[in-house]
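Friendly challenge for the regulars: who can give me the structure tokens for this chain first? No prize, just bragging rights.
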Amino acid sequence: MSKLLVFFVITILLVSCDGRYRAHQSNQDVLKEHKLYESFSENVTYIPETYSEVMSDTLMNNGYHVKIKTYTDMDNSFLNVLKKDMITHKNYYRNLKTAVNISKDNQNIASTLITKDFVMNYDASYKAVLKNKIMQGVWLNQYASINTNSVVMDVLFIDPKENATACYRLTVNDNGDYSIESKPQSKAV
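First reply, four minutes later:
Bragging rights claimed.
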């Protein structure tokens, strides 16, 4: 008889703990009660997600040897916040860094690290344009390099919010002196 009584008490206890008190609570209240609301109401994304690296080694017929190493800056990013359907989407767009080594006739003439700050510090007017942009990449413009007998690189920046771009042309002469100028954008058809 005592076993039947213990079984009956345990059954009543288990049936009474069915969570009916939560029937009148919203999902947000339940998540807040268990301190899980923050993790469900926020979506964090890093673009690119992982480290990447691209290297190019170019020997041009005008005597220049250009080594370019572009890699993801894992410590520096641009935050874009968007709220949609009660969920906050946080997109962290990571900048790129580009290490450039230029030599001519086996003599090193320039070694520099091209970053967003490098371009902004060259001309104060570039700061306003590049404020909300991230560096997308650096490319060697071989055609312009051969025509000008210097090393010409194009540097592209993009605004992740508006998809607006800004392109700059970095020119390095045989003395290692450089100049940066804004490159006009072509309109898409």
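Residues 2-33 form one domain. Residues 41 and 86 are 7 Å apart (CA to CA). Your move, everyone else.
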